[in-house]
Amino acid sequence: MASFSAALVALLLASCAVAAAATTFDVGDGHGWQTGVDYTAWTSDKTFAVGDKLVFNYTRKAHTVTEVNDSGYSACSGANSLSNDDSGATTVTLTMAGVHYFICDVTGHCPNGMKLTVTVTVAGGSTTGGTVPTGASGVSRGPAVSAAVAAAEGALVALALFS
Ligand SMILES: [Cu+2]
């Protein structure tokens, strides 16, 4: 039983460490949030963890930061948005693990590059382990991520039972 408790403590410590080391990302770096920027390239050398922040810089009202689900992302449609802002400086705190989708909902902008996919991991490196925040909702997950999250939640239940 001791090993189960030790594992649980390790998981808790890992989540604290991640929270303490939260990173703030300026989306697009010097380019900001605008058309003609390859945001897939921008994310390609970065990892995102729960607690990190995304800062979108753009001209107020000229663009939007609209969080959508995967189908909204594919269709470049903000019709069923999860959140929306056009203030010019939008900060999004990544509170949930999984895949997050952002588009600009101004006509023509999303097809011209204003679409961003961010895969948020839990314990700094993997979606298949670590703790999962309770009460996660509002963001749809792909099937693979859902399975991983379910597995992680199952592991936590097992730990709780055997502690
Ligand atoms: Cu735009």
From TrEMBL:
Signal peptide range: 1-22
Stretches assigned to the Phytocyanin domain: 23-122
Domain of life of the native organism: Eukaryota
UniProt entry tagged with the keyword Glycoprotein: yes
InterPro entries given in the database record: Cupredoxin, Phytocyanin-like, Phytocyanin_dom
Keyword line: Glycoprotein, Metal-binding, Signal
Residue ranges crossing the lipid bilayer per the database entry: none
Protein name in UniProt: Phytocyanin domain-containing protein
Species of provenance: Triticum aestivum
Gene: LOC123124946
